[in-house]
Amino acid sequence: MGYASFSQAIAQVSDLSQSYDEASWRAVETLERVILDHRPTSAMEAVAMLDVVISDVIGGGRADGRDIKALQAIRAMLDDWG
After folding, report:
1. pLDDT above 90 (res 76)
2. How far is 23 from 82, CA to CA, in rounded Å?
3. CA angle, 14 as apex, 10 and 18 as ends, to 5°?
4. What is the rounded distance in angstroms from the CA atom of residue 11 to the CA atom of residue 27?
5. What is the 3-state secondary structure (H, E, C) of the chain?
6. Could you give the CA distance from residue 25 to residue 53 in angstroms, rounded to a whole number?
7. What predicted TM-score, i.e. pTM, was given to this entire model?
8. Cα 71 to Cα 16, 49, 57, 60, distances in angstroms
9. % of the chain beyond a pLDDT of 90
10. Which of 21, 46, 47, 63 could form a disulfide with 40 if both were Cys (CB 3.0 to 4.6 A apart)?
């Protein structure tokens, strides 16, 4: 399952995360990778990324470290904003 953009991933992840079947879980994982690997350019994008990070941290964190990388990307964006 490939998603072309960050905005498409955001639009679909919340709907799928409400399902608990195996196919939905795999789709959410793919969508979260798109979201967490993104470099935010707006506060709205950063908030969407933080929503995923918070959900992942509540669940015990990610083994792949994408949650930490997403936090670093958000911090870098804030640094750029001065």
Report:
1. yes
2. 42
3. 160
4. 13
5. CCCCCHHHHHHHHHHHCCCCCHHHHHHHHHHHHHHHCCCCCCHHHHHHHHHHHHHHHHCCCCCCCHHHHHHHHHHHHHHHHC
6. 16
7. 0.87
8. 23, 8, 12, 16
9. 70
10. 46
Tokens of 35: 């979201």
One-letter amino acid of 79: D
CA–CA dist 23, 55 (Å, integer): 19
Residue owning tokens 């990070």: 53
CA 62, 68, 69, 71 dihedral sign is positive
- The encoded tokens of residue 33 equal 């990778």
Instruction: Find where tokens 């669940």 sit.
Output: 59
Rounded Cα distance between 51 and 14, Å, is: 10
